[in-house]
Amino acid sequence: MSRLEPVQSVTKEKTLAGAVDIARTALIEITPEESIGEHRGVVLEGERVLTHAFDCVLPGYTGWYWAVTVARASRSRKVTINEMSLKPGPNALLAPDWVPWADRLEPEDVTGTEPLPYRADDYRLVEGFQDTSDDADQLQEFELGLGRERVLSIEGRKEAFSRWYDSDRGPNNPSTRAAKGNCSTCGFMMLMAGSARSLFGVCANEWSPDDGKVVSLDHGCGAHSETDAPRQKKLWVQTEPVINESDIEIVESSN
Description:
13% helix, four-stranded antiparallel β-sheet, elongated, alpha+beta
């Protein structure tokens, strides 16, 4: 909805600009007179067309105007009413623009049991035989028309790599900064295929918070295969036991 920004005077259409009382009287037909506030100016819409703006004093409509659009015929001084409506002013509170469901839905809004709409034009995917890059998924012959119809495009792979690397399972997080070693040197790291192999793997340590998730090679956590929990410091140095043999009575056996 466009906002109405009235001005106090115009150089053209003096006849229409002077029709304040005509505009106010017309408004009384659609709203109680007490809901109509002061006249705030006019907006020149075009040749022989002008809109009058009155404050709307209805509760909840702060900053809104009653708008009355008037016009006249060529060479005529008779003012006619074209339309009347409520329009927001420059400072009126408006609801956010409506966004279609498919555009406002975020990945975290979807559960694993909810089906998503099919997108035939998804730029992240290409037909299996169209991607000829070195990193393309190697399709088996049976997949051509019988298995996966589409695979990740180059743009789809780039977006996925960036999203994974910038997540909490990339290098920029507290667990990595506190770790003694990176995932690249961890025995629980299962490397991925293709170009992803040089950047990512899947954690296979059930004691790690990243178990079963894609992690970057420079990610890290406290469950690294070659790390150990710090040993607790002793409060004192334990010495070897000392036996005082002078107090021992040696008794010979009769046998």
